[in-house]
User: What shape does this take?
Amino acid sequence: MSLLKTKGIIIKQYDYGESNRILNIFTKDQGIIKAVLYGAKSMKNKNSRTAQFLTYADFILSNSGRELYTIKNCEPIECFFKIHEDIEKVALCTYMADLIYTLINLNSPDENILNLFLNCCYALAYKDIDNEKIRAVFELRVMAYSGYLPEMYRCTKCFSEENITAFSPVSGGVVCDGCVQPGDYMINADIYYAIRYILTAEGKKMMSFSASDSVMHTVSEIAEKYVEAYTEKNFSSLDYYKKISGKTND
Assistant: This one.
């Protein structure tokens, strides 16, 4: 039996038997792994108080050659209690975690996406940033890190660099005025530069930009439709977040 010591954040949890819990942990070294916490519902188990959704911790895990690890110890680094106090923020984190789980295979490390998720959690917990801005930044960056970087410098259909006037989620980036199709989003300079900044800014500065409510509304719509186009999936967690937050993108 080998031991694994790693940092990670819990992105999913569900019951396993009457008193145990399965945790999906997004780790720095191993990517997303599954681990069982035995006696999770027992007050005597000190790990049960800390090993919860969004706990970022130092983990000691054992493995006997199976895919399922066993949690031996969990020393919290950050529990994001401020997020847990706000149901809308919990719902948004649940959606972001679902999107990560869709894009990353088990046991495939991706430090960029891990840091992106942690930065978004820190922003939700400790910064005065609108939830929709955080969501749009996360969606665009996670897609880019997953190999779906939008084309922002020339038309995705005719390759012209002139007269860029719209963004096509289905085509994977900007289009010129001669190639616009129904379903594409007309964009102005503010929308264009907001998206380009999100995609190119240094990690810790990715939310350090100003945009009007109307600009962010369009950027949010584009980001959501871009995710939908390339994952080909409707997320019930996103539907729930939009329901309780009133963000229906009407």
Remarks:
- Residues 213-231 form the longest helix (19 residues).
- Helices lie at 81-84, 87-103, 111-126, 131-145, 189-200, 213-231, 236-245.
- The longest strand covers residues 2-16.
